[in-house]
Design goal:
HIT family, subunit A; 5 strands; alpha+beta; HIT-like_sf; 137 residues; binds adenosine monophosphate; binds zinc ion
Length: 137
């Protein structure tokens, strides 16, 4: 039995404040919003993280992320957005079903930049790190 809470939202088993649904994805409001219009976009199929999402689902999924962002932009006229996903427990991922957070941002909202969530300056030269990544297959 699938106990994944976002699979249950995708199947309609549990309710959510849905914004829209496509063949591949659903956008709905976060139940504990950090900002007005805080929205989650999930693929309908279960994938734990971005790496698990089948290649053919990636395009339709990101199209839904773009569409949700554009709808929120029109409806709520924020000054900007913070967009992203937590991948793995260490990053703060609590729900093991891929989800894209759309966080509308306003001047003076007390938030920070996405990259400020970590402060772990590399000790290796960037060229060495880049070479390691390039060599990975
Ligand atoms: P994360 O830490 O990236 O795994 O975030 C999971 C997010 O899902 C949190 O912001 C929760 O508030 C949100 N969430 C959990 N359950 C629900 C639900 N039933 N409906 C809407 N959002 C949810
Ligand atoms: Zn799931």
């Amino acid at each position: 039995m699938n106990s994944c809470i976002f699979c249950k939202i995708a199947s309609g088993e549990i309710p959510a404040e849905k914004i829209f649904e496509t063949e591949h994805a659903i956008a709905f409001l976060d139940i504990m919003p950090r900002a007005p219009g805080h929205t989650m976009v999930i693929p309908k199929i279960h994938a734990e993280n971005l790496s698990d999402l089948p290649r053919e689902e990636v395009g339709p999924y990101f199209e839904a992320c773009q569409r949700a962002t554009d709808l929120i932009k029109k409806a709520l006229t924020p000054d900007g957005f913070t967009l992203g996903m937590n991948y793995g427990r260490v990053s703060g991922q609590e729900v093991d079903h891929l989800h894209f957070h759309i966080l509308p941002r306003w001047q003076g909202d007390g938030g920070h930049s996405l990259q400020s969530v970590v402060s772990n300056k590399p000790t290796e030269d960037v060229k060495i790190i880049a070479e390691k990544i390039r060599k990975a297959t």
